[in-house]
């Protein structure tokens, strides 16, 4: 296969591993800087150019689109889809997962366990929103935040109200969620590929840190999932429509609750914690699934 990978930094561990895995299995993988692509949106003749070269002949595309360039990255991915190139994850599915509010609404619709989550526009409704979420401690989360950035733990109703009002005064959209105290600063990342959990790790936050992101100094180790957690991860991936994703869960007293579904999960932490060749499994999935014009949404938004 000839594979394009939409990624801006070819030196990242995940991107190097995917390229190595593809080439080890006899495929050609070319890393294409997402922002240097440009498109000819012609009737029935969609085209993509890269540094003056017309991109043709690709069998599959692996989108590793950074959160800061989601809008443009999805436009490029849709163009690939309209050209009949098979995407590892479809543009519509990535768009769902990147919209924290929409993803929570879809997960709730499908009956998947979630922390109590509230959302409002008018700062005058702050007190009602705090009551709906069960009161402090609460997590206030920016809709556009990634890797633990834009996530604040408010210990009291007064501090929660201050944080919410400050964010709303700047026109920033936020979610308010219950704080799962019993999780103890740990969460679970389950890697789902092709409808199956292929690896799982438990992430623990740094000392005094309630966020468990590895980018923020957290640590990871292999973990055995319960049947409920495994089922929750698979259902969350299916709900988003993602073939490959990382499902982040907390162990609450009432069972597994999903915090986020990540369409471009990092491979370094989970490969080193579990010893599993995740990159190889992703390429193996592409080998089985990639067919011309097989995108379900065919580039439709």
Automatic annotation (TrEMBL):
InterPro entries tied to this protein: ATP-grasp, ATP-grasp_RimK-type, ATP_grasp_subdomain_1, RimK, Rimk_N, Rp_bS6_RimK/Lys_biosynth_LsyX
GO biological process: SOS response; translation
UniProt GO cellular component terms: cytoplasm; ribosome
Keyword Cell inner membrane found: no
Keyword Manganese: yes
Binding-site residues, Mg(2+) 2: 260, 262
UniProt cofactor(s): Mn(2+); Mg(2+)
EC class: ligase
Entry note: cofactor: Binds 2 magnesium or manganese ions per subunit.
Binding site for Mn(2+) 2: 260, 262
Key words of the record: ATP-binding, Ligase, Magnesium, Manganese, Metal-binding, Nucleotide-binding, Protein biosynthesis, Ribonucleoprotein, Ribosomal protein
Enzyme Commission (EC) number: 6.3.2.-
Xref: PROSITE patterns: ATP_GRASP (PS50975)
Domain ATP-grasp intervals: 104-287
Residues the entry annotates as binding Mg(2+) 1: 248, 260
Residues reported to bind ATP: 141, 178-179, 187, 211-213
Origin: domain of life: Bacteria
Entry's Gene Ontology molecular function annotations: ATP binding; metal ion binding; ribosomal S6-glutamic acid ligase activity
NCBIfam families: PRK10446.1 (NF007764), rimK_fam (TIGR00768)
Family (UniProt): Belongs to the RimK family.
Name this protein carries in UniProt: Probable alpha-L-glutamate ligase
Organism phylogeny: Bacteria, Pseudomonadati, Pseudomonadota, Alphaproteobacteria, Rhodobacterales
